Every structure is written in structure tokens, then in C-alpha cells.
Amino acid sequence: MPNLSAIARLLGPKGLMPNPKLNTIQPKENILETLASQMSGISNYRTDKSGIVRVALGKASFGIDKLSDNVRELMNEIQAVKPENFGK
User: Which among 5, 23, 44, 66 is least surrounded, fewest beta carbons within 10 Å?
Assistant: First the structure.
């Protein structure tokens, strides 16, 4: 991260700064594996304390079928990571 301080003024406002929490900073040995996983369609989502999930589901150019598939996959993922005792 200290090496990026020179270009942080360009990357920051565009939302392109690498973030260790999102696994966008990897050692040299894991670069190919990380690229393969990110190209496979992994999307990062954020949640807050009140249960709101923030995620991009697609682009405006996606069709209805593709967007509905993305929503279905998101709901499956949320159900998979939901704690057992949540909401009881």
C-alpha cells in the first residue's frame, strides 16, 4: 500500500484503490489464482448493522434473464452465509 501513495490521488476518486479486505492486494505467488477467481464473476457485497445489503447486480446493458439470474445467485449466497440463529 505505501507504494501506491504516488498514484492514490488518481485512483481514489475513481474508486479504484486496492483494498486488502476485498483481496485486491495479493502476493506475487497468488496473482494468477486471484485473477481467475475475479474473472469468474465474484462480486463483493457490503452489509450494515441494520441488515441492508449493498451489491451491484449487473449493468444497464444486461437483459432481464441475466439480471434475474444474478438476483437468484445473490439470494442463494446470502442464504448460504446467513448464521443459523439470525432472525429467531
Answer: 5
